[in-house]
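A favour, since you know our structure tokens better than I do. Just paste the record in under my message, thanks.
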Amino acid sequence: MPATAPVAVTGAEGFIGSHLVEALVAAGHQVRAMVQYNSFSSYGWLESLSEEVMSHVDVVLGDVRDPGSVQGLVTGTEAVYHLAALIAIPYSYRAPHSYVETNVTGTLNVLEAVRHLGIPRLVHTSTSETYGTAQTVPISEDHPINTQSPYAASKAGGDRLADSYHASFGVPVVTLRPFNTFGPRQSMRAVIPTVIGQVAAGERVITLGDLRPTRDFSYVADTVAAFLAVGTAPADAVVGRTFNSGTGEEISIGDLVSLIGKLMDADLDVRSDQERVRPAGSEVMRLVCDSSRLRAATGWAPAHTLETGLAHTVDFFRDPNNLARYKAGIYNV
């Protein structure tokens, strides 16, 4: 394979995917970016990247649920970063079958393509939601898997396939399991853009679900750095292994809202909407990351505090052109 072989990214049009594409280009890579086929020929958040960045990106409209699309995407690449997934937990209660098709079968298609084409490295994306509510803290990779939503179950299914393809066929896969990531371009189905977006749109009565759960929030640039770390580390340090990425610090949703209000100089009246509350047995009450395995294997460490990342995110949503891309006045499932 030539030294100039491109790297492939599935889910490239999304929040983390678009930031990863930017970072890969900045690191000197040509990127083959899969965007889910749509009749509008929309490239999602890739359309917000500069012409200079996009001159190094080959956008491929396709679908991870289709084996042919995936094979065409990864042929001749030196690494594949597999981020494509359905991720909204509330929508997984409504449409679980689609989550299995994308998150399980889609991952199978990527694994099969990487296996048969002999691609040197596959980075598979997991989620901290596969752990469920923390039984011990901080949560290491040895924590039991306890899937409390159809979304989490579908992601755990993809993880198990990745493990099995490494064990059975020697597929050079490494799994990254990010804890909650936030930053510019994130969907309003997540809590931080939901709050910041409502405030930026002039709202002071903020509607949310349960305020008690705690989360470990990582700024998107740090999560992307973790992807690059496991994608480029020596194979004997990472291949066949699963790594958590996170800060090791937790904050409750209620305290997070208070912090955002302070940063945005806004006195907020927070109200709970039952439509936004997960079913009782499905709510993950506590997530806090142990990323020591990743740090030891690659030297990765987060470079942003929660406050710094929130400030960058506030700046993004305060730009009227960015805010106009969102529907801040509705519940985004």
